[in-house]
Amino acid sequence: MTAADVNLIEIVEPLDVEDILSQRKNSSTIYEHSASNSNLRRVAEFPVDDVEVRLVHRDQQTVESPVPANLSSCSVDPVVRDMIRTYSDDFSLVHRKYQQYSSGDAYVRLLTERPIIAQTAQKQIYEVDSERTVGRSVSTAGEEQMMYVYVKIKS
């Protein structure tokens, strides 16, 4: 290619990234597999009755309310008004029925049960470990192995 063949003034159209990504998505088999497999989708979605939200009445600690009754009509900064409502509104209590099956709780249970399982499990002794007697110090064990090798080579 020579310098005469390249036009430096010609404007190049930019790539349409959305079109390229949608074409790749349509041609990929990964998306088709996950969309067609309804069993995986059913497991991924949480049950309808999992979350229960209840309002718990907040008891007022004083005889008269410290918050003015016409708070919304007063010329109070909206941030201050929201803070006052936060401290005077009822509590929202969220209860998750199936929380013990969530991955976070299962991981905590695994961490607490792991030492118990390690203590109660029977220790496995392999043939390699049972044939060789290991001395109390590393140097003794090394000398025994060296003598064994020396005897084998000599004989």
TrEMBL record:
Segments passing through the bilayer: none
InterPro entries, A to Z: DOCK, DOCK_C/D_N
Domain Dedicator of cytokinesis C/D N-terminal, residue spans: 10-129
GO molecular function, one term: guanyl-nucleotide exchange factor activity
One Gene Ontology biological process: small GTPase-mediated signal transduction
A Pfam family recorded for this sequence: DOCK_C-D_N
Record's protein name: DUF3398 domain-containing protein
Organism name: Gongylonema pulchrum
